From TrEMBL:
Span of the signal peptide: none
Protein name: Acyl-CoA dehydrogenase/oxidase C-terminal domain-containing protein
Family per similarity comment: Belongs to the acyl-CoA dehydrogenase family.
Keyword tRNA-binding: no
Alphabetized Pfam families for the sequence: Acyl-CoA_dh_1 (PF00441)
Annotated organism of origin: Candidatus Marsarchaeota G1 archaeon BE_D
Keywords from the UniProt entry: FAD, Flavoprotein
GO MF term list: acyl-CoA dehydrogenase activity
Keyword Flavoprotein: yes
Acyl-CoA dehydrogenase/oxidase C-terminal domain ranges (all copies): 45-171
Length: 192
C-alpha cells in the first residue's frame, strides 16, 4: 500500500461517475501512468493495512445498510399514522402491521449482527465480517422492499425519501466486493 499526493507526476484523476444512489459520495477513477512513488510514501505492512481497511469497509457498508433500514422504518411509522384509505389509517390494516413487525425484527437482527461484526473486526475475523456484510446488506433490501410496499406510490415517488433509500441500499452490496463475490469467498473459506 502507498500514498500518492495530488500533483504527483504520472498520477491523474480519470472519469467521475454519476451513480443511481449514494449521490453524496464522489466516485471516479485514479489513473497511474509511470507514476513513481517515493519510498517514504510506501506504507509498511501494506497488505495488512489494505486488509484492515477492507474489513472496516465491510463493517461500514453494514452500518450504512442498518441506517437506511432504520430511516425507512421511521418514515413508514409516520406514513401509516397519517395516510388514510377509505377513512381508515393505513396503520390499522393487518397486512401493514405485519410488515412493520417484520421490518422491526429485521432491524433488530441487523443491529445485533453488527455488534457481532465489531467483535469480528477486533478479532480480525474475515469470514465473520463477510457473514455480517452479507446478512445485513441483504436484510436491508428486505426492509426497504417492505417500506416501498407500505408507502406505495408515495414511496415510489419523490414525495417520500423511500425511493432514495431504495436506490442507496444497492451501493453497500457492491462496497469492497460484490455480495455474490463475498458469498463465493465465504463459501470457499467454509470448505477449508
Amino acid at each position: 500500500a502507498f500514498i500518492v499526493e495530488k500533483g504527483t507526476s504520472g498520477f491523474l484523476t480519470g472519469q467521475r461517475f454519476e451513480s443511481m444512489g449514494m449521490r453524496g459520495i464522489g466516485w471516479g477513477e485514479l489513473v497511474f501512468r509511470e507514476c513513481v512513488v517515493p519510498k517514504e510514501n510506501v506504507i509498511q505492512d501494506g497488505v495488512r493495512a489494505i486488509n484492515s481497511g477492507g474489513h472496516l469497509g465491510m463493517l461500514g457498508a453494514s452500518a450504512i445498510s442498518l441506517a437506511l433500514s432504520k430511516a425507512a422504518f421511521e418514515v413508514c411509522k409516520t406514513h401509516v399514522k397519517t395516510r388514510t384509505i377509505s377513512g381508515q389509517a393505513l396503520g390499522q390494516r393487518e397486512g401493514v402491521r405485519a410488515l412493520l413487525s417484520e421490518m422491526s425484527s429485521d432491524i433488530e437482527a441487523m443491529n445485533q449482527v453488527i455488534k457481532f461484526g465489531v467483535d469480528a473486526f477486533q478479532r480480525d475475523s474475515y469470514p465473520d465480517l463477510l457473514k455480517v456484510k452479507n446478512f445485513v446488506t441483504e436484510s436491508c433490501l428486505r426492509v426497504l422492499d417492505k417500506a416501498l410496499r407500505i408507502t406505495g406510490a408515495h414511496g415510489y415517488s419523490t414525495l417520500l425519501p423511500i425511493e432514495r433509500y431504495y436506490r442507496d441500499a444497492r451501493a453497500p452490496l457492491l462496497h469492497f466486493q460484490t455480495l455474490e463475490l463475498g458469498k463465493n469467498v465465504l463459501g470457499s473459506i467454509l470448505q477449508t
